[in-house]
Design brief:
Strands 1, 2, 3, 4, 5, 8 and 9 form a seven-stranded mixed beta sheet that branches. This protein has one domain. The protein contains six helices and nine strands, in the order αβββαββαβββαβαα. It is α+β, with helices and mostly antiparallel strands. The protein has helices at 5-18, 89-93, 139-144, 173-184, 212-219, 226-235, and strands spanning 32-41, 49-50, 65-73, 103-110, 127-133, 149-152, 155-159, 170-171, 196-197. 22% of the residues lie in helices and 20% in strands. The longest helix is centred in the N-terminal third of the chain and has 14 residues, at 5-18.
C-alpha cells in the first residue's frame, strides 16, 4: 500500500527525533533551493561551517559567531553559500564588554545578491550585530532578538521581512544555474554596516513570537515540527537544505 503523506511525516519525525533532531539523511536526488541557510563559527574560528543542527537546539557560547545567508544552495551546501562577511568576533563584538552570567554572540545576516532574489523582492543590506544574551539562549533566540522571523511548519522562511512570502522552493537546475551566473556577474557586495549591539536576548525571548506557528516551532525545538515537512519534501523531491529547521 502506498504510504500517505501523514504516514511519511510520522515516519520521518520518529527517525529524526531518534537522532536528536539532527538531519543526517542525504537527499534522494540533487536539488537546488532558494533558502536561508544557517552557519556557525566557534570561538577562534576564522571560517564558516555549515550548521549541523537547527537554531532551535543549537546553543552558542560567548565568543561564537552565528551566520545566516539567503541564496541558492543544495542539501550539502558549499563554502561559497556562506555569508560573504568573515566570522570576525573581535570586529563585531570587540567593543561590547563581557558581563557576568551573559554571553556575547556575533551575528551576521547576509540576504545575498539581488540576482537571486524572488520576483518582486529586494534584498536588504547585510548587517552585523553583537547580541548580549542569556547563557542558554539558542540560535533562534539570538536571531529573533534582532529581526522579525517568518516561519512555516517549523522552517525559518523569512528574516527581517525578506523574502516576503517565499519559503524554500525547489528550483529547476537551469533556473538555478542562470540565477547563480547572474549573481556572479554582480559587483561585490557592500560590506555590512557598522556593528551594533542588540537588545538583550534571553532564552525566553524565543517563545513569545506572537505567531502560533513560530511558537509551536520553538517549543518543539524547531525539530519536532519541521521534521515531518522535511520528510515529506524529501520523498516528493522537495527536500529542503540548510538545517535551519532544528
Amino acid at each position: 500500500m502506498r504510504p500517505t503523506r501523514t504516514s511519511l511525516r510520522v515516519t520521518g519525525a520518529l527517525a529524526l527525533v531518534t537522532m536528536a533532531g539532527v538531519l543526517v539523511a542525504a537527499p534522494a536526488q540533487a536539488a537546488a533551493y532558494r533558502y536561508w541557510t544557517y552557519w556557525q563559527a566557534p570561538v577562534g574560528a576564522s571560517t564558516w561551517a555549515f550548521a549541523t543542527q537547527g537554531p532551535g537546539t543549537s546553543v552558542p557560547v560567548d565568543g561564537d559567531v552565528e551566520g545566516w545567508a539567503f541564496g541558492i544552495t543544495t542539501a550539502s551546501a558549499d563554502p561559497d553559500d556562506a555569508p560573504a562577511a568573515l566570522p570576525d568576533f573581535a570586529l563585531i563584538c570587540g567593543g561590547t564588554p563581557a558581563e557576568p552570567d551573559r554571553k556575547r554572540v556575533a551575528l551576521v545576516i547576509d540576504p545575498g545578491p539581488a540576482a537571486v532574489a524572488p520576483e518582486g523582492d529586494t534584498p536588504p543590506a547585510p548587517s552585523t550585530v553583537c547580541v548580549v544574551a542569556a547563557p542558554d539562549a539558542t540560535g533562534y533566540a539570538i536571531l529573533r532578538s534582532v529581526a522579525e522571523i517568518r516561519t512555516e511548519a517549523g522552517l525559518i522562511c523569512g528574516v527581517g521581512g525578506y523574502p516576503t512570502t517565499e519559503c524554500a522552493p525547489v528550483l529547476a537546475d537551469a533556473e538555478a544555474q542562470a540565477l547563480l551566473a547572474a549573481a556572479s556577474a554582480e559587483p561585490a557586495a557592500t560590506p555590512p554596516s557598522a556593528p551594533t549591539t542588540a537588545a538583550e536576548a534571553d532564552s525566553a525571548s524565543a517563545t513569545d513570537s506572537g505567531s502560533p506557528a513560530a511558537t509551536l516551532a520553538v517549543v518543539g525545538g524547531l525539530a519536532l515540527v519541521g521534521v515531518g515537512v522535511l520528510a515529506w519534501r524529501r520523498t516528493s523531491g522537495r527536500r529542503v537544505s540548510g538545517r535551519n529547521d532544528g
